Amino acid sequence: MTDKTDLIQPDRGQDAIPIHLVNKDGFADWAKKLSSGQRAALAAQKFEGAGYQHAIVPDGDGWFVVGGVANPDDLSSWCLAKLAEVLPEGTYRRADGEPGAAMHGWQTGQYRFTRYTNDEKAQGPRILLTKDVKRIEPAMAEARAVKLVMDLVNTPAEDMGPAALEEEFERLAKAHHAKLKVTKGDTLEQEYPMVYAVGRAAARHHAPRIMHLTWGKEKDPVVAIVGKGVTFDSGGLDIKPGSGMLLMKKDMGGAAHAIALAELVMKAHLPVRLHVLVPAVENAISGNAFRPGDVLKTRKGITVEIGNTDAEGRLILGDALTRASEENPELIIDFATLTGAARVALGPELPALFTRRDETADALIEAGKANDDQPWRLPLHHGYDEYLNSDIADTNNAHGNAFAGATVAGLFLDKFVGEDIDWAHFDTFAWRPAPKPGRPKGGAAYGLRAAFHMLRARYSGE
């Protein structure tokens, strides 16, 4: 949950436990500098310099840490993450250099979701010192954004419904002096008919809505961020099996990414006119649920035949993308936990990326590689447009074969993005099924850092 202590702090020469980083190739030469007793301590702990290994080494009246990494001269985000998880509470510094990119995993490695548990026995913070003070605030902002995604996605649907997402927007607006408009009820039905139709079956306290936050100077380039906010997905009348619902609290993962990215943009004071739109619904079942075979109106004016009520995320995104396009943005980025097909193709860790422009895809991929958050591009192949044909409406929301599911979902969204607008769509899982250092099991941010660093490079030249 939210950090109570800054885990990265300026190094002003205060007492701290040294961390030495070595790899397998350099370990033998490094160990020659140690005493025989220290080498014996390493041998007793079977330390050989392999990745994520660590050992505690006595040193006079104190001790130091040695950790194994792939390359001590080029640290990734995760090189210190395991140490952050397993070391005792205390203050540490790297003995032979600065932590650099590894400041990120040092923070996320200490993440714990504690909203529903007694955390009295939790270990205290492990603080890392650095003399590279200019990197501290950006590193903490990124880690907090990632942990915000984790918190939001990990929270069960009863406590993270549309109203809770609205509260997150209210927090953002207040913190960053932004303007927030929330549309509900009859106005929602008139202005965002697909959002209303998908969410109308939910209980009153989970009633559908769309949040629209604006920030920045009107003269600056318009950038829109859109996130899918399905706070729970039963599948609707095309109901999911019980096993398919177990993780559906995470179906608002796109909204979580949008909120976190918006906060990063505002904290960095990027020179953009920001529009953030999140349609928030629960895809529930009741007597007034929308049905397979229904034809829905849309904000765009086209009609949509419902081939599958479990393809609801693209419906609410369609109305939100239409509204975002009305601002004539220079760029739209959307995040959505949209298709199982993307996970079959790429697994949980690689978010599927769809763009209209090659240069936008290249920029996002390079930003992701540089920050250990790589997306993988899939095609918006218009040869599959015919899969969405309808006999009675302008389009169907789902296709009847098992081919190219992620691409076809992207093609549906493409219908609602304004002509010639630069658009990037992330089909992200927002969940990590098994832990890795710095990346705990549960809610996860995929594509968030790639998108932020691309935006920062594009609008601030950094």
From TrEMBL:
Catalytic activity, EC: 3.4.11.23
Keywords: Aminopeptidase, Hydrolase, Manganese, Protease
Top-level taxon in the UniProt lineage: Bacteria
Entries under InterPro entries matching the protein: Leucine_aapep/pepB, Macro_dom-like, Peptidase_M17_C, Peptidase_M17_N_1
Pfam families membership: Peptidase_M17, Peptidase_M17_N_1
Coiled coil: none
Stated name of the protein: Peptidase B
